[in-house]
Amino acid sequence: MTNELVDFTLVSVALLCIGIYGLAVKRNALRMLFAVEIVINAANLNLVAFARFVPDSGGQTLALFSIAVAAAEVAVGLGLIIVAYRMYRDVDVAKFRTLRG
Amino acid sequence: MADPTFVALSVLTIASAIAALELRSLIYGAIALMGTLGGIAGFFLLLDSPFVAMFQIAVYVGSIAVLILFTVMLVRRELIFQKVEDTRRKWAGIGLMLAAMASLGAVVISSGIDAITTAEPAVDFRDIGADFLTTYWPALIMMGLVLAGAVIGAMMLARREDIENDQRTS
Predict the structure, then answer these.
(1) pLDDT tens for residues A86-97?
(2) Half-sphere exposure (Cβ direction) of A59: Cα atoms closer than 13 Å
(3) Whole-angstrom Cα distance, residue B25 to residue B79?
(4) Does domain B1-83 have CATH number 1.20.120.1200?
(5) If we measure between CA atoms, which residue out of B78, B14, B159, B58 comes closest to residue A71?
(6) Domains of chain B: which residue ranges?
(7) Neighbours of B8 (CB within 10 A)
(8) pLDDT average, residue stretch A5-19
(9) Nearest by CB to B29, which of A34, A55, A78?
(10) Domain definitions of chain A by residue range
């Protein structure tokens, strides 16, 4: 094993910061969902990397739970985006102004 | 030191993450997001956890990315290519990203985790199954309920009340 823990952690930090950039700048709801996916994947990479270097199966188990929760989150998020698009004919989050149905 | 496979994978993952956010077309963005998710699966393989890697490919690349692609295709065509953002906000975002990267990277490097190495064998995936069925079984049941609730909630959200489904008569 020639790769070290710090390399994986640095890649994870880079992905996290790219996701934060996307969440801060983009106004398209689908792009914000992409950014959330990137952040979740950075977290999973960290979990599995630490599970490898501190040999323990708990990290991988937690990563599997995290992937399943992310799947549920994407299903609900896409449903919300479809409803908002049907109401406003737009996916720009700045145009979603009312909570009225 | 890192080997060439690791370097290639990190370049692929980070470049396609940037592409997913910056490409003009949302469809190409979704395909670039698939590249990021597949690259993460490659990292899991490098970390000797093939079970999580296969789960990642099945759930993320197989279902979530395809679901996002279909949702993108439901959106009107001119919205797919539309790009609304002001330049000041974008440069502020890039500055925030670089500052966060520098500070978090400095914290990670100076925290001393580069001294952590392991000579022990990787975790067997049978241990993961044993974990699921012994220690974490209540969490596993809750996970199933959460997934079922999320799917039912998403279907209830996306339902249309204003049109009647009268395919039987026509």
Answers:
(1) 888 888 888 888
(2) 21
(3) 9
(4) yes
(5) B58
(6) 1-83, 123-163
(7) 12
(8) 92
(9) A34
(10) 5-95
Q: Is A87 near chain B, with CB under 8 Å?
A: no
Average pLDDT on B105-131 reads 83
Q: How far is A17 from chain B (nearest CA, A)?
A: 5
Is domain A5-95 classified as CATH 2.40.50.140?
no
Each residue of A31-56: pLDDT tens digit?
999 999 999 999 999 999 998 888 78
Is some CB atom of chain B closer than 8 A to the CB atom of A36? Answer: no
Taken in order A89, A91, A93, A94, the sign of the CA dihedral is negative
Closest residue of chain A to B109, computed from CA coordinates: A6
Q: Between A2, A28, A71, which is nearest B1 by CB? A: A2
The pLDDT tens digits for B42-89 are 999 998 889 999 999 999 988 898 889 888 888 877 777 766 667 888
